[in-house]
C-alpha cells in the first residue's frame, strides 16, 4: 500500500474519531465504567508509581491517564483527535499533575526516552501501521520503561460489537469496516498482537485475556448508546435514512435476543491486554 493511500486512510480514521467526540463526552461516565476493569489491569501490569511520567495514547475520555494521575504520576493525556484531547482535559480539570495535547500514536511528538510508562486502552488496533506505532511507543519510553495496551479480542468472542458490524454490512450491502481500514478487530489475535509489539522493539511482551461483558438495562439503551459512540460506525449510522435505520434496529434486536436477561442485556466480550518494557 502506498504512503499516499496510507495517509488517506489515516486521515479518514482520525476524522471518524473527531466526529464522535461530543457523543463520547455525553456518555463518558458509561465509557469509563465499561472500561474500569481494563484500566485497573493496565495500571497493575505497569505498576505505575507516584512521580513517574506517564503518557496515555488514544486517551478518549482520559480515564486511564486520570487514574494514573490519582496515583500521583505526572500524566500527559493525548489523542489524535484534538476534540477528544479537549474532552479528556476538561475531565481532568483540577488535577495539577495532568496536561493534555493532541498526539498521533504513529508519530508521537515527544522527545526520546521521556516517559516511564505508556498506556493505551483500545487505540492501537486503529493504527494504520501498528508496528510504526509500537516503534514510537518504544522510542518515547525510557530504558526499562513499561507499557500496557488493550485491544479487543477475537471477533467471535465479542458479539456485542461483531453483531453490529455484521448487521450494518448486511443492511448497506458492503463490508464494515471497508477493506484496508483498520477496525476494532485488526489485532484480535494473541500472536499477531505480540508480534507487532516485538517488531516495534519492545521486550518481555506478554498477552493475557480479560473478560469484559457488555451490560445494558434494555435493548433500546444499548442500541442508542452504540449508535452514538461507535467511532467506525457512528457516522454511517447517523447518515442512514429513517427506514434503513429502523430496519437495522430490528435486525439487531433479533440478533441480540439470546442475550436478554431479567436485568436487560448481557453480551460477552473479551479484551487482550499486552504489557512489557522498552
Characterise this structure.
- This protein is α/β, with parallel strands linked by helices and 278 residues long.
- It has a domain at 3-154 and 182-213 and 268-277: 3-Layer(aba) Sandwich (Rossmann fold), CATH 3.40.50.
- It is built from 12 helices and 10 strands.
- The protein has helices at 3-19, 21-26, 28-34, 36-46, 63-70, 82-91, 130-140, 159-172, 190-199, 219-229, 231-238, 242-255; strands at 53-57, 74-79, 98-102, 115-121, 141-152, 203-211, 214-216, 260-261, 264-267, 270-277.
- It has a 7-stranded mixed sheet with strand order 3-2-1-4-5-10-6, sandwiched between helices. The protein has a 3-stranded antiparallel sheet with strand order 7-9-8, covered by helices on one side.
- Helix 7 (130-140) packs across helix 9 (190-199).
- The two termini are 29 Å apart.
